[in-house]
Amino acid sequence: MTSEITLFVNPTAGRGRGAHAAQPAASALRAAGFSVRTVIGEDAADALRRAREAVDTGTRALIAVGGDGMASLALQAVARTQTPLGVIAVGTGNDFARALGLPVRDPAAAGTVVAEALEAGRTRDVDLGRVGKTWFGTVLASGFDSRVNDRGNRMRWPTGRFKYDLAMAAELAAFRPIPYRITLDDGRVHEVDATLVAVGNGSSYGGGMKICARADMSDGLFDVTVVGDCSRTTLLKVFPRVYKGTHLDHPKVTVFRAAKVELAAPGVTGYADGEQLGGLPLTAECVPGAVRVLVPEGPQVP
């Protein structure tokens, strides 16, 4: 393993914050005495190839600079290796960083955390989800929320978060419960009409929506949150509670815990860490201690 640190940068994250964040993050690492190399790919595939090359040639750490999409891409390179992952979270959601108790949208502070963790050898092995060959750190989303993503991704105008607000309004108007078949690793099969099903390794998605509020990234299990057959009125009442995680006590919400889960539902796309996986059915497996992450001193949230 070399002494060189690899900064893995998405220059477009957070409407350009990724490019600006790389400099203070690199400065914090260099001030601590580390040699820093920056990797920027021409596209996602090229970026991942370069990140894997850095890991394969023994970089001391891979530091993702960007949002959850960049952290997710970095996970594909470091999962099941000894190379630690650092996160400089400057995207829109930053849920993976939140789950690790890392600074959000403060690249200098995050760079300092990474540098101090490297100096002290302070790492934490956390679980990851895996669907096929794709790893995810936070939540696999399906149902109402994934249909909002589908619609938003098809819209050319407007841009930014407002596009997804409009997509949500349109999906609410057209929404009907979805027939799901949920198969857990203990053999239990649940056939339910549901609004959405979220498979959580981490607790939140969408920038702090605690859909799987009690998920623990170190217990080897997913929290599978099932929001049942809700009317639009009920959904609008329950939705704001997701930000505090208090929706889990609602009678329409059920939580299962499992190391492996298969979701099947017609016409539904799965998204993990905000990235499209493809149509259901999908099988997700929780892999204990699959990635080593650089963390701040003191306790981290699950």
From TrEMBL:
Keywords of the record: ATP-binding, Kinase, Lipid biosynthesis, Lipid metabolism, Magnesium, Metal-binding, Nucleotide-binding, Phospholipid biosynthesis, Phospholipid metabolism, Transferase
Enzyme class: transferase
EC number: 2.7.1.107
Residue ranges constituting the DAGKc domain according to the UniProt record: 1-134
Cofactor(s) in the UniProt record: Mg(2+)
Lipoprotein in keyword set: no
Entry superkingdom: Bacteria
Pfam family, one: YegS_C
Any one GO MF annotation of this record: ATP-dependent diacylglycerol kinase activity
PANTHER family in the record: LIPID KINASE YEGS, SPHINGOSINE KINASE
NCBIfam families xrefs: PRK11914.1 (NF008882), YegS/Rv2252/BmrU family lipid kinase (TIGR00147)
Family of the protein in this entry: Belongs to the diacylglycerol/lipid kinase family.
Name of the protein in question: Diacylglycerol kinase
